[in-house]
């Protein structure tokens, strides 16, 4: 039997919050949310996708019935993987383009890494990426939080020397290319930004 | 409690400023954790002429601010004020 969330007459963000609570509660693998606004339909559908649910929309009686189901297979895909992940950060900005946006995205990236339940073992900082591990870094709080969870934080010694920042390292240890390559080769997966 | 104080608009615990709202937090996570913040977003709806909690629900506060050209520090300050007021 599906759990039912009747969110008719409610505007955003209520339908999404109620659906999220239902997903997190007992028997949250099969549920139907009923909404009567297209924006609520769109947002609940986005939530379903982001939480690893398959969903179908049925339109009846001037309302949308969003039928959501989470299969075991999706649960496995969704997370809690035991594979080791090493993350290589080789720039102080995320991606190329606007500098302000690059900083915002790097902030979001490191914050999200903290929120994830994946088995991240190492964060390697190379080239201008080392600006993120030294005093004055705008993201130091996220990197320290990762370190406190057991993630090893490594910054390239050659890069710290090059930028004259060796004395300013504020989190983690100094590493060399040999160790960095060893970490990247041994990891089951690597993420490079 | 002597260790908890609210000078001005910020919350302090043993003299350390307690950060409740990070700019990386999604709008959804903020209003789910602190429902009293919905009122602040509604106020900004009028300024930007859009429903922020409809259109930006899955974006971070920082992304939302850039999208509408808003001052993020002001928003964070108002959100924290709403939480403390409650």
List keywords for this structure.
heterodimer, A: 193 residues, alpha/beta, Hypothetical Protein Ychn, Chain: A, 9 strands, B: 86 residues, mainly alpha, SP0561-like, three-stranded antiparallel β-sheet, 5 helices, 9% strand
Quick synopsis:
With 193 residues, chain A is α/β, with parallel strands linked by helices.
Briefly, what CATH class of chain B? Answer: Mainly Alpha
> How much of the sequence of chain A is in beta strands?
15-25%
Flag low-confidence runs of chain B. Answer: none
User: What is the 3D form of chain B?
Assistant: globular
The averaged pLDDT of chain A comes out at 88
* CATH fold label of chain B: SP0561-like
CATH top level assignment of the largest domain in chain A: Alpha Beta
For the largest interface in this structure, which chains are involved and how many residues does each contribute?
Answer: A-B, 19 and 19 residues
CATH topology of the largest domain in chain A: Hypothetical Protein Ychn, Chain: A
What's the mean pLDDT score of chain B?
Answer: 83
- Provide the CATH architecture of chain B: Orthogonal Bundle
What features would you describe in this structure?
The complex is a heterodimer of chains A (193) and B (86). Chain A has 193 residues and is of the alpha/beta class. Chain A contains seven helices and nine strands; from the N terminus they run E-H-E-H-E-E-H-E-H-E-H-E-H-E-H-E. Chain A has helices at residues 14-24, 38-50, 72-78, 99-115, 140-148, 157-162, 177-186; strands spanning 3-6, 30-35, 54-60, 63-69, 85-89, 120-125, 152-156, 173-175, 189-192. Chain A has a five-stranded parallel beta sheet with strand order 8-7-6-5-9. A four-stranded mixed beta sheet of chain A has the order 1-2-4-3, with helices on one face. The termini of chain A are far apart. The model of chain A is unreliable at 74-80 (pLDDT under 50). Chain B contains five helices and three strands; from the N terminus they run E-E-E-H-H-H-H-H. Chain B has a single domain (21-85), classed as SP0561-like (Orthogonal Bundle). The chains are: A alpha/beta (193), B mainly alpha (86). The A-B interface holds A 11-13, 16-17, 20, 39, 43, 46-47, 50, 100-101, 104, 107-108, 111-112, 142 and B 22-25, 27-28, 31-32, 38, 51, 53-55, 57-58, 60, 62-63, 66.
